[in-house]
Amino acid sequence: MDFPDDLYYTEDHEWLRLSDDGATATVGITDFAQGELGDIVFVEVEPDGTTLEQDEVFGTVEAVKTVSELYMPVSGTLQSFNEELEATPELVNDDPYGEGWMVTITIEDAAEVEALMPAKDYEAMVG
Fold first, then answer.
1. Could you tell me the residue ranges of all domains in the chain?
2. How far apart are CA 66 and CA 44, in angstroms?
3. What are phi and psi of 105, to 5 degrees?
4. Side-chain half-sphere of 77: how many Cα atoms within 13 Å?
5. Does 127 have pLDDT greater than 90?
6. Residue 105: CA count within 13 A, CB half-sphere
7. CATH class given for the domain over 8-126
8. What are the angstrom distances between the C-alpha of 45 and each of 32, 82, 123?
9. Rounded to an integer, what distance in angstroms lies between the CA atom of residue 60 and that of residue 39?
10. How would residue 2 be classed by pLDDT, with cut points 50, 70 and 90?
11. Is 59 left (phi over 0), alpha (psi -120 to 50) or beta?
12. Closest Cα partner for 55 from 39, 75, 37?
C-alpha cells in the first residue's frame, strides 16, 4: 500500500495535496480506502463553487457493493471536479494519488491543514 509523504491524510481516508502557494489543494481518497471499497463505479461531488466546512460531506463514491461519503479535509470552496471520473471512475482504483484525484479546493483556513496527519501517522493508523 502506498502513502506518499507529500500528502496530508484524514481519519476518514481522504488525502490532501497542497499547491505550491498553499492557497489551493487537490483532494482524493487514499489507496487504503479504494482497496476497502473495491471496484469504484461512480463518483459524485457537490457543484463547483460550493463552500464547505472541515469534515462536511462533499460527495459520494459508489463501489459495486457500497456507497461511501467523502469528507472535506479542510474548510474551503470546491474549484473543480476531475471530469475524467465521469467516464472512468476506476481511475480512483488504478491511481488514487494521481489520475484518480477527485476535486480541487480553495483553502479557507491554512491552520486546519497542519492538524491533518502526515503519511507516517496515517500508515500507523491503517496498519
1. 8-126
2. 14
3. -135, 155
4. 6
5. no
6. 32
7. mainly beta
8. 20, 10, 26
9. 14
10. confident
11. left
12. 75
69-125 pLDDT, tens digit each = 999 999 999 999 999 999 999 999 999 999 999 999 999 999 999 999 999 999 999
Look-up of cell digits 476518514: 12
pLDDT digits (tens, 9 = 90+) for 6-19: 999 999 999 999 99
The three cell numbers of residue 63 are 463501489
Q: Tell me if 28 sits within 8 A of 10, measured CB to CB.
A: no
Do residues 42 and 89 make contact, with C-beta atoms less than 8 angstroms apart?
yes
How far is it, in rounded angstroms, from Cα 5 to Cα 24?
18
Single pTM value for the model: 0.96
The answer to whether residues 7 and 27 touch, using CB atoms and an 8 Å cutoff, is no
